[in-house]
């Protein structure tokens, strides 16, 4: 019987991986859009667990990163602040990404038993922060030394292996990050074809800079003085669970609405959670939620925040799950924030309202190592506002839908009871 | 022992020994013949000495002339130095996984806990003015924060650098390291494990058991030419042989983690590099060899205290070991160069320059002390110059003192930019640059100048043996193959980081 106190992650080694080729002078400045700057307090944490991986040299793991960074060179850059306007941008000076290597003294199975399930306190356990590096971009003047991507390789006893990554959302949205790591997996497997070079994304900047329609999706929050990091009023916690097809059928059956049969897992699950949250948060019901979907990126290799953002407003009075789901499905448009990127204003997107992020058409668990897919994949956002955040993605191969929720601890505690009742049996 | 020497010398030298034997034996035999034949005349020697000599003269003259001419020719041909050819050479091209951009170096300097703020600032200031570019390379151990050098990682670096260079060289020349290497000289100043690096090479390439291997350590950045000198001297003794010379500096064990400024400089300037060279005294290789070695001149200023201490490996007060470079370095280098020039000048300069120098010297001593000393124009003696890329200051200083144009020192500056200070192998990267640019023609003379701890200044003079097709050179995957088209570059005085 292994206790949490027995587990030690040790032998930490820190190194840097840079682009294999020098970035051209002309590409050195990567302008950040207003949307990019609005996301600067969010950090995407991803974790992939692999079983039965034959041990290989760290350089074998690092080498494809060098090549990948030639295409994704802004990821290897550092934040700089314009002397005149004070606006942050990325200087693509090939500083590199940080790689952390570590060892765990227990097996992967034992680790997952201890840390893999249930409600996890984000502050204390930092979302499995021992397997995912915890790091925030420092405010000027130390911003020059803050890497925008950190990757951790952890070896467990008995052939277990985990790859954890911390991707600064300022670089790009979740689909960009997933695209990056899936590409890495392909290069690691020996595929030598690189995605074509990062094209000039000026054409697409305009979409992100459109003024807001009606509801503001961004909110100002308290942030850390030293870092671009959210300071929550309440303790936040996270929880992940899987929703199978059977579960979905049950929900549809229980609501008795014919409409829902045509809707997808995303809408059904988010409607359900919205419905529960209304019951939980009696002080302030979430009348508006934010929904983010990735835009189909024809030009891979672009690092930018280009996801489409919508809000859904709930009409006064009770709405049942079916009606909520319908409202979600019908919500169109692209409500982009009216944020001018002024550095003094610290705003967030995720958690400004209860935010649902659909990883529509994104192969979130696409990473393969030694021909094997991960046995477990977790993604969460570090730096979420108090209104909460839900990430929903489809497990490939029809394995169901994975849901990760970040909420204030006591709210999550109540929600977990509903979840356990409906989805885990 | 003599039997071994004869056998080892091979069939090539046997005929020379035979002829020498004949010569030695023939003198008393001839004398004997004279005495036996002219015995009675010798008795009357006192009376008819002159007549006797005349008769000998008439009889022996034509034979004697032929005999003594043949003898002289024999002595001349067997005692002159053998011509030494450089068949080809290969420089190590570091993989992209070892690349160190400026910003990464700067960031690491700030993050390494033991460095105080001043040390980090100092290293950054040096890097900005160093003349290095964004593509220089450090070994994998130095990419960690802090670097984690181990004996194993140092050996791994040595294997990567040396084996890669030798493999490349074998491909270019068709050399079989297991069969064709008779002499092996390795120089690596700051890493000297047991078994030695030369043994490591013998083991890897399964070299023959009578290979003559030498491992030179501790001899500094000028050791590349010392190794060439040693190989040349050995090739005088052993006929019909090939010598493999490997020059490198292993960076892994030599990162300095303390805060003494004089010892932080090497962190900023030294980078991964290595070269493998094949020298031969075989006549059969003369046609396809690239260069012929003309002179090697070595100057050691170690007898002077200041020179001896100017590059010094020591421990600082915290116990960190590093190489301390004194502020006198440039002045001492200048003096060492002067001493070297004094020896090499007469060997290479045309008579006109030598006379001019002599007259000016006399003039200064006798007529007018304030007369400016005449600096011989070495551009008349050499077409190409390879100055050790020790640092920007070294190249600037030599450009000034030898009155060279920017084009002459371009190879040195560009090598410093692309590869950093690779210590003893830098001269070979520079020569590879000149070749890759298509500037070298048959008959061109090259002057390689190396400086290093001791303090030593060593020179080698090469003569290009055959023309080189640029595309051949570049396609042979030299270290400049993928980037020479980008050079030369303008190197700013201070790089903005």
From TrEMBL, chain A:
<dbReference type="InterPro" id="IPR050317">
    <property type="entry name" value="Plant_Fungal_Acyltransferase"/>
</dbReference>
<keyword id="KW-0808">Transferase</keyword>
<keyword id="KW-0012">Acyltransferase</keyword>
<comment type="similarity">
    <text>Belongs to the plant acyltransferase family.</text>
</comment>
<dbReference type="Pfam" id="PF02458">
    <property type="entry name" value="Transferase"/>
</dbReference>
<protein>
    <recommendedName>
        <fullName>HXXXD-type acyl-transferase-like protein</fullName>
    </recommendedName>
</protein>
<dbReference type="GO" id="GO:0016747">
    <property type="term" value="F:acyltransferase activity, transferring groups other than amino-acyl groups"/>
</dbReference>
<dbReference type="InterPro" id="IPR023213">
    <property type="entry name" value="CAT-like_dom_sf"/>
</dbReference>
TrEMBL record, chain B:
<feature type="transmembrane region" description="Helical">
    <location>
        <begin position="18"/>
        <end position="36"/>
    </location>
</feature>
<feature type="transmembrane region" description="Helical">
    <location>
        <begin position="56"/>
        <end position="77"/>
    </location>
</feature>
<protein>
    <recommendedName>
        <fullName>3-ketoacyl-CoA synthase</fullName>
        <ecNumber>2.3.1.-</ecNumber>
    </recommendedName>
</protein>
<keyword id="KW-0472">Membrane</keyword>
<feature type="active site">
    <location>
        <position position="421"/>
    </location>
</feature>
<dbReference type="InterPro" id="IPR013747">
    <property type="entry name" value="ACP_syn_III_C"/>
</dbReference>
<feature type="active site">
    <location>
        <position position="417"/>
    </location>
</feature>
<dbReference type="InterPro" id="IPR016039">
    <property type="entry name" value="Thiolase-like"/>
</dbReference>
<feature type="transmembrane region" description="Helical">
    <location>
        <begin position="213"/>
        <end position="231"/>
    </location>
</feature>
<dbReference type="GO" id="GO:0009922">
    <property type="term" value="F:fatty acid elongase activity"/>
</dbReference>
<dbReference type="GO" id="GO:0016020">
    <property type="term" value="C:membrane"/>
</dbReference>
<dbReference type="GO" id="GO:0006633">
    <property type="term" value="P:fatty acid biosynthetic process"/>
</dbReference>
<feature type="active site">
    <location>
        <position position="384"/>
    </location>
</feature>
<keyword id="KW-0808">Transferase</keyword>
<feature type="active site">
    <location>
        <position position="300"/>
    </location>
</feature>
<comment type="similarity">
    <text>Belongs to the thiolase-like superfamily. Chalcone/stilbene synthases family.</text>
</comment>
<dbReference type="Pfam" id="PF08392">
    <property type="entry name" value="FAE1_CUT1_RppA"/>
</dbReference>
<feature type="domain" description="Beta-ketoacyl-[acyl-carrier-protein] synthase III C-terminal">
    <location>
        <begin position="383"/>
        <end position="463"/>
    </location>
</feature>
<feature type="active site">
    <location>
        <position position="221"/>
    </location>
</feature>
<comment type="pathway">
    <text>Lipid metabolism; fatty acid biosynthesis.</text>
</comment>
<keyword id="KW-0812">Transmembrane</keyword>
<keyword id="KW-1133">Transmembrane helix</keyword>
């Amino acid at each position: 019987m292994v206790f949490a106190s027995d587990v030690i992650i040790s032998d930490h080694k820190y190194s840097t991986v840079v682009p294999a080729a020098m970035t051209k002078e002309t590409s050195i400045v990567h302008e950040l859009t207003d949307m990019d700057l609005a996301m600067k307090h969010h950090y995407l944490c991803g974790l992939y667990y692999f079983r039965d991986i034959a041990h290989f040299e760290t350089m074998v793991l690092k080498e494809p990163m060098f090549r990948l960074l030639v295409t994704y060179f802004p990821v290897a850059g550092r934040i700089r602040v314009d002397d005149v306007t004070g606006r942050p941008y990325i200087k693509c000076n090939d500083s590199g990404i940080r790689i952390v290597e570590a060892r765990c003294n227990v097996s992967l199975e034992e680790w997952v038993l201890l840390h893999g399930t249930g409600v996890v306190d984000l502050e204390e356990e930092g979302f499995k922060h021992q397997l995912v590096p915890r790091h925030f971009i420092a405010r000027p003047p130390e911003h020059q030394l803050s890497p925008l991507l950190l990757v951790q390789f952890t070896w467990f006893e008995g052939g277990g292996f985990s790859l954890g990554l911390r991707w600064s959302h300022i670089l790009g949205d979740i689909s960009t990050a997933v695209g990056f790591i899936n590409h890495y997996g392909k290069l690691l497997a020996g595929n030598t074809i690189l995605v074509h070079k990062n094209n000039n994304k000026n054409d697409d900047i305009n979409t992100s800079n459109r003024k807001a329609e009606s509801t503001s999706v961004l909110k100002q929050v308290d942030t850390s003085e030293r870092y671009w990091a959210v300071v929550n009023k309440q303790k936040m916690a996270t929880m992940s669970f899987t929703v199978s097809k059977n579960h979905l059928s049950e929900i549809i059956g229980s609501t008795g609405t014919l409409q829902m049969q045509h809707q997808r897992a995303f809408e059904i699950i988010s409607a359900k959670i919205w419905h529960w949250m209304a019951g939980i948060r009696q002080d302030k019901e979430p009348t508006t939620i934010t929904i983010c979907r990735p835009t189909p990126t024809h030009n891979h290799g672009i690092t930018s925040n280009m996801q489409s953002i919508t809000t859904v407003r709930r009409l006064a009075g009770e709405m049942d799950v079916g009606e909520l789901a319908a409202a979600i499905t019908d919500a169109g448009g692209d409500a982009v924030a009216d944020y001018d990127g002024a550095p003094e204003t610290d705003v967030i997107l995720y958690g400004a309202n209860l935010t649902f992020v659909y990883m529509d058409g994104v192969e979130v668990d696409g990473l393969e190592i030694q021909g094997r897919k991960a046995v477990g994949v977790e993604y969460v956002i570090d730096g979420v506002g108090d209104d909460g955040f839900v990430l929903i993605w489809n497990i490939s191969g029809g394995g169901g839908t994975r849901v990760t929720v970040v909420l204030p601890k006591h709210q999550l505690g109540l929600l977990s009871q509903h979840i356990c009742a409906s989805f885990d049996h | 022992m003599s039997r071994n020497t004869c056998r080892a010398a091979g069939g090539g030298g046997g005929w020379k020994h035979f002829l020498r034997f004949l010569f030695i034996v023939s003198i008393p035999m001839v004398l004997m013949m004279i005495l036996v034949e002219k015995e009675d005349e010798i008795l009357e020697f006192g009376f008819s000495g002159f007549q006797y000599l005349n008769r000998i003269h008439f009889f022996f003259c034509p034979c004697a002339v032929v005999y003594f001419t043949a003898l002289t020719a024999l002595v001349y041909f067997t005692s002159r130095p053998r011509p030494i050819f450089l068949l080809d050479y290969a420089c190590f091209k570091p993989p992209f996984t070892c690349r160190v951009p400026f910003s990464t170096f700067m960031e690491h300097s700030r993050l390494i806990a033991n460095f105080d703020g001043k040390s980090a600032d100092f290293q950054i200031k040096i890097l900005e003015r160093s003349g290095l570019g964004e593509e220089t390379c450090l070994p994998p151990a130095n990419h960690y924060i802090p670097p984690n050098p181990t004996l194993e990682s140092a050996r791994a670096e040595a294997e990567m650098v040396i084996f890669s260079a030798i493999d490349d060289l074998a491909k270019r020349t068709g050399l079989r390291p297991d069969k064709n290497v008779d002499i092996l000289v390795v120089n690596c100043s700051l890493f000297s494990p047991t078994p030695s690096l030369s043994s490591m090479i013998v083991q890897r390439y399964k070299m023959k058991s009578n290979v003559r291997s030498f491992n030179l350590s501790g001899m500094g950045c000028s050791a590349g030419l010392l190794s060439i000198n040693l190989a040349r001297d050995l090739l005088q003794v052993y006929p019909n042989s090939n010598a493999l010379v490997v020059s490198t500096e292993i960076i892994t064990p030599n990162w300095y983690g303390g805060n003494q400024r004089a010892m932080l400089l090497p962190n900023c300037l030294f980078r991964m590099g290595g070269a493998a060279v094949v020298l031969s005294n075989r006549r059969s290789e003369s046609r396809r060899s690239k260069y012929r070695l003309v002179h090697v001149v070595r100057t050691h200023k170690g007898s002077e205290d200041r020179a001896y201490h100017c590059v010094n490996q020591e421990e600082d007060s915290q116990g960190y070991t590093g190489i301390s470079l004194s502020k006198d370095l440039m002045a001492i280098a200048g003096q060492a160069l002067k001493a070297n020039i004094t020896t090499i000048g007469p060997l290479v300069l045309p008579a006109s320059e030598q006379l001019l120098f002599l007259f000016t010297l006399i003039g200064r001593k006798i007529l007018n002390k304030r007369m400016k000393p005449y600096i011989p124009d070495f551009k008349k003696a050499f077409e190409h110059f390879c100055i050790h890329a020790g640092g920007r200051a070294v190249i600037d200083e030599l450009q000034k003192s030898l009155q060279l144009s920017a084009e002459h020192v371009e190879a040195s500056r560009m090598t410093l930019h692309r590869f950093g200070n690779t210590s003893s192998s830098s001269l070979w990267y520079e020569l590879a640059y000149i070749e890759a640019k298509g500037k070298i023609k048959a008959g061109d003379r090259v002057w390689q100048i190396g400086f290093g701890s001791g303090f030593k200044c060593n020179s080698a003079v090469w003569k290009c043996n055959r023309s080189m097709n640029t595309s051949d050179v570049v396609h042979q995957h030299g270290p400049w193959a993928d980037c020479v088209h980008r050079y030369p570059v303008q190197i700013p005085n201070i790089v903005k980081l």
